[in-house]
Amino acid sequence: MAEATRGLSFENRTVIVTGAGGSIGRPLCLAFAKAGANVIANDYGCSAAGQGSSGASAEQLVAEIAAQGLSAVADTHNVATDADKIVELAIERFQRLDIIVNNAGIITYGPVEAQEPGDIKRVLEVNALGAMALCHYAWPHMQKQKYGRIINFTSDSVFGMPSSAGYVLSRGAMLGVTKTLALEGQPHNILVNTIGPSAYSRMVSDVIQDLPPDQQEGFKRAFTGESNIPPLLALASEENTYTGQIWTSGNYAMGRTILGTVKEVKRLRTARDCLSAMTELMDKSRAWIEPQSIQEFLNFRA
């Protein structure tokens, strides 16, 4: 883990990591603490589906960090309902808040007809609305200090993953809002990015259970939680200058996902015209751009 933080310092920075007890959250909290940060390790302690609660994982993690003479505080609030209290704790204990990593997430599996609206709502409240609430309550503090780094979590599942509609809905919600927050934050030196990490976890174990055993073992070995830490530290660092972007990580690699738009077809008067236009619009050689704002999108369309 020392290798991941080489050349980076988070001295006197305060960071909130939600889902701190998980496969990514735990090594990330350790890395931040070893690099000098004050860590708020938030974990409600629920199951992968969001049921039950126990703060044991956060408390055990903080005990481990404290044993090394490093700075961390355990927080067991539910980000879906008590995001304000998580921010309050950071300010009360360390008088500032510099970094948020919205890592907390739950998932329910099943075909769309089997997923009750209440189940989908619970996933959305944790994965998207809770993340947004943390941004909301942290924003005035970051504006005041003219500094902030926010990392929201998305997922490769936004490209389509059966039997997980609620989860995909929640992770897709973070794409556009990250770009919006980036535009609002830039004048205040608040940079906001989103990342889709890949790591073996309680969630992923259900997704890959139908793969051959050797492939499952290969995934476990390659896509560890630790293999996502270097990109997360880079995005959280003062040296990072990118904002409003969609990144990917896992297996000690980093990639970028784009939201693009192709040149529209105009002067369509009938449904038959539109059916023909669809073929043109699907042509991979058609002119396209990756807008960084609604204005860039409108300018391209014009």
From TrEMBL:
Q: Does the keyword Oxidoreductase apply?
A: yes
Record keyword Protein transport present: no
Pfam families, from UniProt?
adh_short
Its keywords, alphabetically, are: Oxidoreductase
**Gene3D superfamilies to which the protein is assigned, alphabetical:** NAD(P)-binding Rossmann-like Domain (3.40.50.720)
Domain Ketoreductase span(s) in chain numbering: 13-198
Q: Which GO terms describe its molecular function?
A: oxidoreductase activity
Q: By its UniProt entry, which InterPro entries does this protein fall under? A: KR_dom (IPR057326), NAD(P)-bd_dom_sf (IPR036291), Peroxisomal_Beta-Oxidation (IPR051687), SDR_fam (IPR002347)
Q: Which SMART domains match?
A: PKS_KR
The family annotation for this protein states: Belongs to the short-chain dehydrogenases/reductases (SDR) family.
Protein name, per record? Ketoreductase domain-containing protein
Q: Which organism is it from?
A: Cladophialophora psammophila CBS 110553
The lineage is:
Eukaryota, Fungi, Dikarya, Ascomycota, Pezizomycotina
